[in-house]
Amino acid sequence: MIEGLKLTMTGGELRERLDARIRWHEERRDEFARALTPSDDPESRTTPLPSDIIEHMRNQHDMRASVLLLIHDHVEASETYRLGEPDLVFAEMIPKTDED
Q1: What average pLDDT score do residues 76-97 get?
Q2: What distance in Å separates the CA atoms of residue 88 and residue 50, rounded to the nearest whole number?
Q3: Which runs of E-coded beta strand occur in 1-100?
Q4: How is residue 12 annotated by DSSP?
Q5: For residues 92, 94, 98 and 100, what is the CA-based torsion angle, rounded to 10 degrees?
Q6: Sign (positive/negative) of CA torsion 64, 97, 32, 14?
Q7: Which of 1, 30, 38, 68 is the most buried (most CB within 10 A)?
Q8: Domain spans of the chain, in order of start
């Protein structure tokens, strides 16, 4: 008997979902990196945040992409994984609750 909600998915599906989250973080990282690059085009400028905040956000997305890539690279595509809520939240497959 299984207590609580558990999701079962193949390693291949898990890797695909991790790929999507990794790409999302890489895109956000690149957006923040572009925001740190000075531009002469006034139309490309948005309301700037302080550069230290932009750099922090870029680093956060880069770190998160790296963590998810590490997991991705160690998931066996041919295996089946049973994931609980903590696993799903950590892998960013479901959002954290307000209580977290």
Answers
A1: 90
A2: 33
A3: 7-10, 80-83
A4: H
A5: -50
A6: positive
A7: 68
A8: 7-38+48-90
Residue 21 predicted with pLDDT over 60:
yes
Q: Which residues of 38-48 are buried (b: 16+ CB within 10 A; e: fewer)?
A: eeeeeeeeeee
Which phi and psi (to 5°) does residue 68 adopt?
Answer: -65, -35
Please name which of 66, 85, 72 lies closest in space to residue 25, comparing C-alpha atoms: 66
Sort strands 7-10 and 80-83 into parallel, antiparallel or unpaired: antiparallel
Q: How far apart are CA 2 and CA 14, in angstroms?
A: 20
* DSSP state at residue 95: P
Task: Locate 39 and state its tokens.
Answer: 């531009």
